[in-house]
């Protein structure tokens, strides 16, 4: 019995709430991935800035005096600020917001943690603000990807959310691989090596749709246009064949349309020489070609709306113009 009244309104409300929650979860996962990508870019830019300022100094006239009084430039707050100022493009809101929100962490790392934790990305993005995960892990708790963190997706695919706090860990397999664990092969590939944790998919012979090995004798199923011969090898059928047991027009199982069996070989049918004409419209002639024929208009005719219409000859056109000039009352002065 269909729900009516308050029950129907409640069901609709629950459906809307469910949809909103699903959208929020999806957006949250995207935001987590985006946050990690932003953080990774920031730390990469920090490292570039660190290298760029490696041979700089305070820029004054007496560097030795300045370093005695102010500390060394290489570990100074001035150098840190110069690096931090170049971390983001002015148009990148996410980058600038993250730097401003966590600026004190850069100071902490620069003055107190840099020696013990030289990997800024690991210390800042993974361990401190926790927007990224170690490589090969994903999600809020940095769980290992399918296949393990050392070889996500068994080395044959990409783990969704790899290295971020987002994603669901599912594998997107590289070309040639398929399945939840990226250990199976797609059609056109076969497992050259396979165990519980490793798979090597190799392309089949080009004649095979599916196969167990690399040669055309190893086909389980032939590609379209190829047929299995007496030796169970996939061979290309000649265009004159409809199915074949080998290459060439003399190995056809049947002849293709427009061809006929002539002493065991499929040969072209000359439709134009048959007793019944195949081009039946007026002023048409038949031209034979391989496997078919073409109807064309006689010389002096051209096709118009499916009919062969006589073309106007130049002499006729001149005579017509002369006749019109003679008939005109102003033809002579």
From TrEMBL:
Ranges where the record places region Disordered: 308-333
SMART domains listed in its UniProt record: EGF, EGF_CA, FU
Keyword S-adenosyl-L-methionine: no
Pfam families noted in UniProt: DUF3456, EGF_CA
Keyword field: Calcium, Disulfide bond, EGF-like domain, Repeat, Signal
Record field: compositional bias (Low complexity): 323-333
Xref: InterPro entries: DUF3456, EGF, EGF-like_Ca-bd_dom, EGF-type_Asp/Asn_hydroxyl_site, EGF_Ca-bd_CS, Furin_repeat, Growth_fac_rcpt_cys_sf, LE_dom
Any one Gene Ontology molecular-function term assigned to this protein's record: calcium ion binding
EGF-like domain location: 141-183, 268-307
Entry annotated with the keyword Disulfide bond: yes
Disulfide bonds: 173-182
Signal peptide: 1-28
Similarity comment: family membership: Belongs to the CRELD family.
Name of the protein described by the UniProt record: EGF-like domain-containing protein
Source organism (scientific name): Astatotilapia calliptera
